[in-house]
Write a structure and sequence with these properties.
310 residues, alpha/beta, eight-stranded mixed β-sheet, two-stranded antiparallel sheet, globular
């Protein structure tokens, strides 16, 4: 048993599955599984209960987790301190974002971070909000860029920009901007994620404020690209930010209609994780993200967005 084994074990325990741990750690899921199996053989105990939803720690696993977290945090703090004092910047930078945001931001963000931290290892992750928030809490992600939940609760965040949502329809669907301005989404068959996703909750709350319910054509927990394809094939309409479908609209494959009202905008925010990074380093991460977001909005490369005003 060594520190690497304990780090893998802690990551599996915190993420709740081998595949999620592999994604967060940037390794292969089979490697994670083999290391956990070998660790269990070495210790002679079962560390995880395996079930259909993933894994959970046994009593023996919970006891080991306390020590594993201490070892991981001590090594991370030592590595950060040494790298920082050597003037090399942090050893590793972990940035996470929801898929639509990642598609727009990650390319430009890479170049800004690489310039500021040429010796640091960059790690980008995309995922749904609940996964990203768990990674922030576990210290897996240093910073995340995500849509503010409809009910943020105690989450502390910094607004970056507001992104208007669009009704996206097939080319031959009978719809006009006047109709959208007057009746919104009323009577429109929509393709939306299932209820635990932020967009579905946002759209339903917006419809309720306008006095009608969402008419659901299809639930699809797939990527934005697949959702756009389903709309193109006439399976229904959807609600998305313009940046995610601007190319398809420009090519004449889809049509887009901005939804009226301030409550038809989603706030994209910056959230800091429970990380061992120095405060000055975290400030530099945040500054880089703000620089990229500001540039994308100013250049028109983030259509349908406006910067948040302090």
């Amino acid at each position: 048993m060594n520190s690497d084994d304990l780090a893998v074990f802690a990551l599996v325990a915190e993420t709740g599955s081998f595949s999620s741990a592999a994604l967060a750690g940037g390794v292969d899921a089979s490697s994670v599984s083999r290391r956990i199996t070998q660790l269990e053989k070495t210790l002679g105990v079962r560390l995880f209960h395996r079930h259909g939803r993933g894994v959970s720690v046994t009593a023996q696993g919970a006891a080991l987790l306390t020590y594993a977290e201490q070892v991981r945090d001590t090594l991370a703090a030592a590595q950060t301190a040494i790298s920082t004092h050597a003037g090399l910047g942090p050893a590793r930078i972990n940035i996470a974002a929801q898929p639509t945001i990642a598609r727009t931001v990650f390319g430009d963000l890479f170049h800004v971070l690489r310039k500021r931290f040429p010796h640091s290892r960059l790690h980008f992750t995309e995922g749904l909000a609940n996964t990203l928030l768990a990674n922030l809490q576990a210290g897996v992600a240093d910073v995340a860029i995500l849509y503010r939940p409809e009910h943020p609760g105690s989450m502390l965040y910094e607004p970056l920009l507001h992104e208007r949502l669009y009704l996206v329809t097939p080319v031959n669907y009978p719809m006009t901007q006047e109709r959208v301005d007057q009746r919104g989404l009323e009577g429109v068959p929509l393709i939306l994620p299932s209820t635990h996703h932020g967009l579905r909750m946002f759209v339903e709350a917006m419809a309720a404020r306008r006095g009608h319910k969402v008419e659901l054509a299809l639930e699809s927990d797939s990527s934005t690209a697949i959702t756009a394809t389903l709309v193109h094939k006439g399976c229904g309409c959807t609600v998305l930010p313009l940046a995610s479908v601007a190319d398809d609209i420009a090519l004449g494959k889809l049509r887009g209609f901005p939804l009226p009202g301030e409550d038809a905008e989603r706030c994209i925010c910056l959230v800091l994780g429970r990380t061992e990074q120095e405060p000055s380093t975290l400030w530099s991460f945040s500054s880089a993200i703000r620089e990229v977001v500001t540039g994308l909005v100013a250049s028109g490369e983030w259509p349908g967005a406006r910067l948040a005003v302090d």
